[in-house]
Records
---
Amino acid sequence: MSFCDQFVDRTWGRRDTFYDGPITTHVSSADPYCPDLRRVLVQEACELSITVHDGGTVVVIQGPRFSTRAESKWFSAMGWDVINMTGYPEGYLARELELCYANISLITDYDAGLADDPTMPAVSHHDVVAAFNANNASLRELLFRVIPLLSEEPECRCHSALAGARG
Ligand SMILES: [Zn+2]
């Protein structure tokens, strides 16, 4: 599992703010995910012997189309670690609502394949569902373990995201 700490938005046409007027509101997305929540998730995932990638960037593509080989190569060259279709805008909307939110990415495939291994097949919907189902038990176990550990009064800055966001 990857617990990304950054995203790149490559989507379009999605409603992505609760504050489209009349008051101008600019909520920072410099650090879009809750660092404290990620820390607990990583710690407990390690305790469960889940393979963990702590941090990284998820590029959120529009979908439902999968990437071309050229796009996949570009994403990789940019240093983006995970490709996803649903991670935006939900994380940012959570930030606008001053909620703690973390990214948990279940790695299901190699997108359009590996550039240096032409025998690696491109992703299929079938493969994604199969890999997701194989990871689902671990994810469920992780969530049931982490949720009781979370403070009702977190000390992170998520809960003051609107401070200074308005003129
Ligand atoms: Zn938080």
Note: The chain has a mean pLDDT of 91.
---
Amino acid sequence: MADSTLAPALRADDDSFLEFEGTTPYEDYVHASVLASLQQPLTRAPAEMGFLVTAQVMELWFTLTVHEWCAARAALREDDHVGAMDALHRSIGVLHALNDSFRPIASLTPAQFNGFRAAFGKASGFQSAKYRRLEFLLGDASRSMVQPHRGHPAVHAELEEALTQPSLYDEVLGYLYRRGLPVPEHVRERDVTVAYEPDAGVEEVWRRIYAGPQHDPLVELGEALTDIAELVLRWRGAHLMATRRAMGAKTGSGGSPGVAWLEKRAVRPVFPELWTARGHV
Ligand code: HEM
């Protein structure tokens, strides 16, 4: 049924809302035609467009996740609890959208995937620089993961820079320390260019927080981080399942053993002590 409040406006004598000097303000802001120019499938396979668009959409969600986590990290550095919580909550919304984005390709059959797989050659999400930044922010820094990007100086420089920055989790732990919690010195002074290792002292910090009043702002911070960890693990699980359905135990296009490799990657802990501390509360 037509919307009676909008319809008269659309029939108005003044049709200035249909006339623009150049491109529409929407185009100028959203760059929709630039986005639409980026879908260039390599085959006529019916499922390829969905695969390509899904990968591009996920790249955008990775970008937004990185943006929000950098905002949260900057806020924590300033001891701005509210600003950090706002950014973390926005990122939780993004991660839900990211995970829902698997739908179009979640159940590709091997024959459907084979219809375009050879065409993209050695391309693999493993080479996604934004995903790598996202993992660095979680605390999973790795110099060797920067290497594939040597041929793209701007991206390489961005990743190199990211590698030297404390992760979101490092900033959380620094913040907890300034709030009076006994985060060990070797954790606060750790080499941030290598992956974070679980620590008994940090587990005790979270245990203390969780054993206290449940509406304490630090419990709320812990819960936002737990939501994030769970959603990242869910992304990995959904990716693994889609891969298993589409290609079984075949070797990955990026050169890994495929599913066997992803199974190991999928279970790497995110914010480990937030999980282990629960067993001691
Ligand atoms: C059915 C579709 C897909 C299949 C069969 C698949 C398969 C694989 C495989 C086998 C790997 C391991 C590396 C390799 O040897 O290539 C991998 C890694 C990866 N894929 Fe996918 N993938 C699919 C969809 C996607 C999509 C849509 C994205 C989003 C951009 C994506 C992002 C990634 C990322 C980020 C990694 C690296 C994971 C890590 O480093 O732990 N994949 N994929």
Note: The pocket of protoporphyrin IX containing FE is lined by residues 54-55, 58-59, 105, 108, 124-126, 128, 131, 239, 242-243, 246-247, 252-256, 258, 261-262, 265 (CB under 6 Å).
---
Amino acid sequence: MKALETRNLRKYFGNVRAVDGVSIHVDQGEIVSLVGPNGAGKTTLLNLISGLIKPDSGEVYLMGEDITGKSPNQLVSKGLARCFQISNVFEDLTVLENLLVAIHSISGTISMTKRLDDSEAVEKAMKILKEFNLDVKAHLTPKELSHGDRKLLDVAIAYSLNPKVILLDEPTAAMSYREKKTTVGVIKKLRDQLRVTVLLVEHDLDVVYEVSDRIVVMHQGQILSVGTPEEVREDPKVKEVYLG
Ligand SMILES: Nc1ncnc2c1ncn2[C@@H]1O[C@H](COP(=O)(O)OP(=O)(O)OP(=O)(O)O)[C@@H](O)[C@H]1O
Ligand SMILES: [Mg+2]
């Protein structure tokens, strides 16, 4: 089952062909990484999928449903959550309060779900924080967290929205080796224990090779190569773009 699919997606900015006819899919339960040099169109593709910008043409499907052009909020309620290249947490709230805002935002907007009362919401938030090893930091503000923990908080917030699919944009950017190892564990946990499908943009190829079921390589707005880590690693076209 395809959890996420794009068909011939296109977005030009003036004469910049940021995303130029991209068809990809992510099967349910997969971790797919999107890689490519700076300016390849990776973030633009995530923006198109998550509804932040609208495509010039082409379609996006979530669990088989055409979601093209829907707003990020509509997509969250359909099960698509994302983290940004630049973290967007509330700086003046604690870690726990950041989670509570996210949890209330969905329990309040999905009409079929009853709004959680405060103690239920706190219980849910603490359970999620524990999954991301942030429970002991629940009462700190984001400023008091390490860079790695801030990024984990982003992922925890996205996860608290009950997603079927999570989009991550450079989750390990600027992390130390140790922080990267933790994040790799968390990404695998999303797939293996929390049963979330993951599409991630990532520059660190060690991370990409370790977590990915499949890799999509973008270059100049187009798909250059798709395959398992082994297949992509051996693809001469990919070597050319990365080395040449
Ligand atoms: N809002 C915009 N207006 C104009 N041009 C844009 C806009 N957003 C992206 N671009 C251009 O589209 C191309 C793709 O950019 P994008 O940010 O998607 O690349 P990326 O693969 O995410 O790069 P990076 O690895 O540096 O994050 C680039 O040439 C970029 O300058
Ligand atoms: Mg980017």
Note: The pocket of magnesium ion (ligand 2) is lined by residues 42-43, 85 (CB under 6 Å).
---
Amino acid sequence: MNSRKYPDWKDYEKQIFAAIKEEFPKATVTFNDSIKGKESKSIRQIDVSIRFKENRKSVFGIVECKYFTRKVDIGKIDALIGKMVDTGAHFALIFTSLGFTKGAEQFAKKCNIGFRQVPFEFLKDFGYVPANGLDDVFMQEITYNEIYCEKCKKLNFYEIKVVRGFADFNEDIICPECKTPHLKNVRTDGGYKVIKRFNKKSITEKEYKETIVSHLIATREEWDKKHTFLWEHLKLLPKDELCFICSKHLDQGFPGTMPTEHEGKTICFECMMSQRTLLLDSKIVC
Ligand SMILES: [Zn+2]
Ligand SMILES: [Zn+2]
């Protein structure tokens, strides 16, 4: 098992924190700040806020750490400018692993928005992004779609992940072989991929379920690890406080960890939304 596949969120957080500290050594840097908007009067969540004094003036900057799976486009810049105006920020920084799209970069510079590149492509492979500086994970949903490609004469079995609470990205779901768009502008902020291809037009309900189950088994170590590395203390908790399928600590407070019932077992809402209940149904976990 390649341990590099599993990002350590704490390391990531520390890296961003260290980078900001280095750049603004005299500033007060706050993670996961919330500020009441001057215009909107509603609470604005700020990934990281930076406050310092320069020539006796207070300077306030905001940092967005949310763009790891797509390039930052002009729409995101627009949204960030709105946030800057509303919170009274003098400048903003975006942490991204992929940079800006054409046009967005120039526009950003004009508006006092800088960007810092970080190599975190693995977040996409990983299929999830935890909240900044907090030990909770945003809700992840997974959908499966089988779509026959007329050009390739093959049925593509897609897995599409959505991370609720994360910056939303939409894209076309394309055939990996001929690049025909099969689904247009689908929300894919957790990434998507073809997990199996069939040489026929349609599959049965049984084949549909079997495909998901074998995929879940094959990737189980991955999503097990994903939860357990964040929840080292969970071994100390009583079993009934853990999701029966993924062992994540159940907590009413967060959408992904909310307890729910399936076949008499208490499981987390994320497992419910990820079709992992098929593992219970087919007695793979029992
Ligand atoms: Zn195709
Ligand atoms: Zn679970």
Note: Confidence is low (pLDDT under 50) at residues 1-10, 120-137, 227-234.
